[in-house]
Design brief:
Strand content: 25-35%
Radius of gyration: 26 Å
Length: 702
């Protein structure tokens, strides 16, 4: 046997090349499997690859024991030194199907998370059909030191559920409760379980049902695994006990045939690269795992000033104009945004249509009825107030009643069974078409160079369905290639306009994946209109998006009290502030509370990109009565505490994990006669005089 070992300051991986040239992953950070038997090590597959027509040695529908994935043999490997880490490549081959597979493992000095992907090349003379290929495969997840059959009760799976206005809602349950149970080998030839825990996303909202993330925590060994899939469309992961009763598998991938309608024909000499994924094993709980993932997300993100300075953005939409902008009603909002200290002002949807606009979008020309003096005049007014102007855009769609819809050829759009796909009164553009990309270039050029915007809110409110048939091996293949073409187009826009800020929005948070967010500096996390529930989402948003990219609405209501304003502001003060609401209709005192919140935010906002998120009360869910979220630096904490609906006025937040409390100050609001707090034994004890209250604290640690 031969070993391949690679390590950095934060990550370690070790592989064994077994006597039959099978490559086994035997160590991933703290998860050490080197003591397994030789027979068990044969099960440690590093790539699943299923080719059409080849035998699939599984039971049921799980994706383990694929062919030729199970038969791949070691060919070579290489370790490349890179800035902040190393890149390990392992090449394997199968002579029966004539494929060469290369696994890539990018390790970083400053994060325990490893980025992985795979390429497969057809080295033969016949076409090969790919039904499934993993981006990362590991057997024995979380099992170093826990090889008994109790892993199904020791391991707790955290799954982040999403729906519109209810993003990042983590559910936790043991593997046994999730449906996996220890499986006993009933005979020499009965190897595979038929059960799996399967999490999928189809269509083009990457987060329509789940965030592309997961955590598995072993309560027996205090070890956690954490992962994310970097896809802006379809993806799949599964946990199975499918190799034998003692080993737990995880498989991460982009789309595959059974669950995602994806199939790829690989002609002789052609290669295919999988979706990139990230995986890490750490000592500690879910919070420790998410902190390592936060570090990783910052490493892969495009460097930009927006995520360093965190400017305050006013947007006219939420609980304000709601898609009905005009030159007349924008001016008082611009004046108010300037008065309270905002840095950007964004005119949201509706600026391009005289009335109802949903099904007529596509030309992206300003409405003369809404802006009789031209939208340029309003944009200049924004600039004259010292604010950077922005506009809303939804570049991937054409409304069915758009003046240009019937003038464009079908190959501009997603097609299935010979028909254009219509979703919510819109057609979906196909960015593989160079004419579509040229059209999109012209629209962005007009907004930036003619209108003078420095910010685009790029929204995305429909979905494609399973994909498109034009120039595709399968519907899913068309969707994947469109997504990749869109990302390349987006890269070209940022290269052309390096100072332009483009917000990623998909009906709020329906597309908060890191295929997008390694490019975009800011993510609209939710469209939630209830400020209480907005607080619940704000507190968990940084579990799936870095705090400095996580934009949360703050929208004081026209008819409200001081506590409603304070709650709204606290929602956004440890992430990115998306200010909105009819500020021009607030009384002076409540407007002063908004201005105070922004002033306090500006004293710590540039620390946010260097701090790590904490959840002392755990990952809350919608309508929890008490919840908290904070940011931890070397010797300090910023902590937000919320009391939603409920009649329990007192709450304790244990901060023992983070160090010894030296001092604590309530930093927002400054003046307060309705809440009290004190510290005992590194526990913050708060008393809020009524429900629907929130406070922000600064804590110095020893």
């Amino acid at each position: 046997m031969k070993n391949i070992a690679v390590d950095t300051d934060s990550a370690q991986m070790e592989f064994e090349i077994l006597d039959n040239q099978h490559v086994a992953l035997v160590k991933m950070n703290q998860n050490d499997l080197k003591s397994l038997s030789d027979a068990q090590k044969q099960e440690l597959i590093i790539t699943e690859l299923q080719i059409t027509g080849e035998n699939f040695h599984h039971k049921g529908i799980n994706l383990v024991n694929s062919t030729p994935g199970s038969d791949l043999k070691y060919a070579s490997h290489n370790v490349e030194e890179l800035s902040n880490g190393k890149l390990l490549t392992i090449v394997t081959e199968d002579s029966n199907t004539n494929v060469t597979v290369t696994n890539y493992y990018r390790l970083y000095d400053s994060s325990a998370i490893v980025r992985t992907w795979v390429t497969v090349k057809n080295t033969g003379s016949k076409d090969l059909g790919i039904e499934y290929i993993s981006s990362y495969a590991m057997t024995g997840i979380n099992q170093g030191g826990d090889m008994g059959n109790n892993y199904v009760t020791h391991n707790v799976l955290y799954t982040p559920h999403n729906k519109w206005q209810a993003e990042a809602q983590w559910e936790s349950r043991t593997l046994k409760d999730a449906g996996l149970d220890w499986w006993s080998n009933g005979g020499q030839n009965q190897r595979n379980s038929s059960q799996r825990v399967s999490v999928n996303n189809n269509s083009s909202w990457s987060c329509s049902e789940y965030s592309p993330n997961g955590i598995l925590t072993n309560t027996h060994t205090n070890m956690s695994a954490v992962w994310q899939i970097e896809s802006k469309g379809a993806w799949h992961y599964e946990l199975t006990d499918g190799n034998n009763g003692d080993l737990l598998n995880i498989r991460l991938s982009g789309p595959e045939e059974f669950d995602n309608n994806w199939w790829k024909n690989l002609a002789p000499g052609e290669s295919f690269e999988t979706t990139k994924v990230a995986f890490g094993q750490v000592e500690g709980d879910f919070e420790d795992a998410l902190q390592q993932m936060t570090k990783y997300r910052r490493l892969i993100r495009k460097p930009n000033e927006d995520d360093k300075k965190l400017p305050v953005i006013f947007n006219d939409y939420m609980n304000a104009l709601m898609g009905d902008p005009t030159e007349e009603n924008e001016r008082p909002l611009i004046d108010a945004a300037e008065k309270i200290g905002c840095d950007y002002f964004v005119v949201d949807c509706g600026w391009y249509a005289d009335g109802y606009w949903w099904d007529s979008v596509g030309e992206w020309l300003p409405s003369k009825k809404r802006f009789p003096n031209g939208i340029e005049k309003t944009i200049q007014y924004i600039r004259d107030k010292g604010l950077t102007p922005g506009l809303w855009l939804e570049i991937e769609v054409i409304g069915i009643n758009s003046p240009i819809a019937n003038k464009l050829p079908d190959d501009w759009f997603f097609m299935r069974h010979g028909k254009r796909i219509i979703d919510c009164d819109r057609y979906h553009l196909d960015f593989r078409n160079p004419e579509v990309r040229a059209f999109a270039d012209k629209v962005v050029k007009r907004l930036v160079e003619e209108y003078g915007v420095g910010y685009i809110k790029m929204d995305y409110n429909i979905t494609t369905g399973i994909g498109t048939e034009i120039d595709s091996d399968s519907f899913g293949d068309g969707l994947l290639e469109h997504n990749r073409a869109y990302l390349k187009w987006l890269d070209s826009i940022f290269a052309r306009y390096p100072d332009l800020v483009i917000e990623n929005c998909g009906s709020g948070g329906m597309r908060h994946d890191y295929a997008m967010l390694q490019r975009h500096s800011i993510q609209s996390m939710t469209d939630q209109t209830d400020y209480l529930r907005n607080g619940n989402i704000a507190s968990v948003g940084p579990s799936v998006v870095t705090p400095e990219q996580c934009a949360i609405w703050s929208y004081p209501l026209k008819q409200g009290d001081d506590e409603e304003v304070i709650f709204n502001m606290v929602n956004a003060m440890l992430v990115r502030i998306h200010q909105s609401g009819f500020l021009n209709k607030l009384d002076e005192h409540r407007l002063d509370l908004v201005a105070e919140g922004i002033k306090v935010y500006k004293t710590h906002r540039e620390k946010i990109p260097e701090m790590l998120p904490i959840w002392p009360d755990g990952l809350d869910r919608l309508d929890d009565e008490w919840f908290s979220y904070g940011l931890k630096g070397d010797h300090e904490l910023y902590l937000a505490v919320w009391h939603g609906k409920g009649d329990q006025p007192e709450h304790e937040v244990s901060l023992e994990k983070y160090g010894n409390i030296q001092s604590i100050d309530q930093i927002y609001p400054e003046k307060d006669g309705k809440s009290k707090f004190n510290v005992e034994n590194n526990t913050l004890k708060v008393n809020f005089s009524k429900p629907k209250m929130a406070r922000l604290y600064h804590i110095t640690l020893g």
